[in-house]
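Researcher: We're teaching a course module on how sequence relates to structure. For the next exercise, students receive a sequence and then see the predicted structure as tokens, so they can try to spot secondary structure elements on their own. Here is the exercise chain.
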Amino acid sequence: MSAVAVGHLGGPRLTLGFDRWERLDLERHLAVHGRLPTPDLDEVVAMAERAGLRGRGGAGFPFARKLAAVAARVAHPAADADALLPGETRGSRRPGADAVVVVNGAEGEPGSAKDKVLLCRAPHLVLDGAQIAASALGTRRIVVAVEDDAAARSVRAAIGERRMPARVVRLTERFISGESGAVVRAVNGEVPVPPGVKVRAAEAGVDGAPTLLSNTETFAQLAVLASLGPDLYASAGTADEPGTTLLTVGGARVVEVPYGTPLRTVLDACEVPPGDPVLVGGYHGEWLDAGGAARAVLSRAGMRAVGASVGAGIVLPLPAGTCPLGEAARVAAYLAAQSAGQCGPCRLGLPDVVRVMNGLCEGTAGVDELRRAAGIGRGRGACSHPDGTARFVLSAAEVFADDVELHRAGGCGRPTFGVLPLPVPDGSEGRVAIDWSRCDGHGLCAYLLPELIQLDRYGFPVVLGTDIPRWMERDARRAVAMCPALALRVTTGPR
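Model: And here is the predicted structure for the students to work with:
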């Protein structure tokens, strides 16, 4: 994590000791944060309620309610022995099973680094929080689910130092890896994608047992709360939202700030020019123009007042000189390729969004077309991915409305530099291509791959220039094999 700069505004809590050590091993952790407190269930719930502790993974769900729901399920496992929860079978339920505590260390968003920083540099703080929750629930079953190699090594080393019965599970690095259902399925050894049917982890999670699943920073915040107590914890932040939070700014800088801090203060500290538009909440978040960024305050109410949310604490400034629509279209194409492909809004809706975004860049499409494409699957996806993607592109179209008009008039005159962070291709990503010396316009490819290929008015294929999603690779190979003219190709290698 040496490439990620870490700082703080106000007094450090989660990042305490980072100015002295690259990584806090157990001895350094104890010197900085002290011994692990052991409050009981009622005390933990009361502390979390009093401090208004919410999840830091994006949804902001109250931690006390989540913990209490798991505890209730453990206390009354057979309240309705004949009723099955969504996704349960008679064989999957384990009445009386110990609860499981899962640290969700999936950080699939390219613009986020805060959880990796915590796992690499303060793993014992995260494990303290997980152990406090596990002790309150009367269980020793702790799982840390991570994507990053360095984070996995750091956590395994910390578990060894503590000699605690916890295990590390590796996750696939994908945008949707952090969705709660996908994490549970990964821990269970199943295909790590959202289950398609909403199943509350508190009711039936890992191995069918009641599961407390929260993200890395949430458990670290719980450890700080238990160490400081609610009153001292509330000495930072606002009355409604005490404490601090971690922000990843620009993809390569993590800053700990108290709630209630103006966003402009953070941007100034990170040397972001006042005129730059800013994306907050990551690639499922919202854009703010310069005026909105100047008015925004880092709290639920403060961000809501400017039409945005803190989300998972991702702040991505867009510097002058690059084409905003081109940048948004790049991200939309990435999000479409990252879907699980389980439902119509992802399989067909997201490619349509990409087509319209490309049309906005080319000056051939309008915002009304984008609203129609983004709204078709709203609320009907197997997970929140299509809704989040729609929120991102519609916000871009609103904030960059002047650019839309410039493109309709012939272009904005700016290239797309690709400044918004995306994963670096490894050369294995496939794309559909057409050998035009062979194509006869049979149209079979559009029938076999409607997500990636449409026909123009003359019956010839128009290919969507995105990477082939993993779930579509078999269909793409079949389409290549069935092309009558042998014109369809799948290409790999540098773009």
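Model: If you want an answer key for the exercise: The longest strand covers residues 100-105. The two ends are 28 Å apart (CA to CA).
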